[in-house]
Amino acid sequence: xxxxxxxxxxxxMVCDYSLRYLGGAQTAFLRQAEALADExxxxxxxxxxxxxxxxxxxxxxxxxxxxxxxxxxxxxxxxTIPVLDLPLLGRAGDLAPLVAATIRRHEIGAVxxxxxxxxxxxxxxxxxxxxxxxxxxxxTFFWRAPAVLAPFAPLVSRVHxxxxxxxxxxxxxxxxxxxxxxxxxxxxxxxxxxxxLSPSRHQxxxxxxxxxxxxEAFSNVAQPLRVAAAPEGGPLRLLxxxxxxxxxxxxxxxxxxxxxxxxxxxDRVHLDVAGGTHRPVEAVTFHGPVPGERVGELMDAxxxxxxxxxxxxxQPMVALEAFAHGRPVIVSDPVLATEFEEAAIGTxxxxxEGLADQIVRLEADRALLAPHRxxxxxxxRERQPAAHVARLRxxxxxx
Length: 399
What we know:
The chain contains 15 helices and 15 strands. It is of the alpha/beta class. Strand 14 (329-331), helix 12 and strand 15 (344-346) form a beta-alpha-beta unit.
């Protein structure tokens, strides 16, 4: 770290989600915090179970990696909201003194939030009162819940209003009542930040259309490049990695594999699934819960990764991981196919039949993967930590 950087204002990074559970939002959050620290920016992390980040960096240091210091602060936890598995930290008004004290003590010059609940609302409100920039990273504006749960929409709105202190403002109205309530939650936090950051262009457009204000398309941080040689010989190997949630549509991948086996037999294509419990699906291996390094090994052994969600994902972190390893993604969602350009291979239809057709085509001619591998590396190279931090600094300075 240069001497002039030690005196520069720090960045406060805020998240309502537990950092012990590594979903997509937490992974993006942690990578951004580490990228900032490693580029010489003073970073303070305020989030439930923030010590998980300190432990993670201590492990990296023991493994020989050079680590730059960052400060971690965990607000007192009062419980967990059922179903959402969301830490209950109290109301935004109760959290504001902690945020204000943190900003003053650590000479914070900008606040970056990665969630839509009480702690994020408190951080944005305090930043505005103290006259420092606030940026809100939206990980999904495409909240989706079963329509049968629509009667719970008023409850969701009341709970969010009680936690954040935000009880009025614009409403999203483009879906069924519960989806509308969930997306309104994100919209109302976004409208209070100076800049809204969307990791994808298509989500940025949706946020602008909803009235979010200044929205910038700004990618998450890609892993450092670890490009492995393409597999040689053997079956075409595919990898599925995601949360085991209905919107990720694992069943589409499994149904596609059943169709592929019917057409080609069980030995020409193989699918590895990271996570989950074993099911008797021919040519599919369920690996159960796996650590990050094991996901990297599976990625290196694969020809491509599968992303089978439809109309839900913004910028899946598994895509960035695949690209950093030089692996393209096969996507069911035509919007993601456009978002990732040459790094993605779209299916003709978003169902299992369309995915199976694409898999059979690639198995017959693996040379078709080559330009998409090049596209994957190019996509990851443009989103490396140094470039990400430089652009974030520009955005903060622009407020």
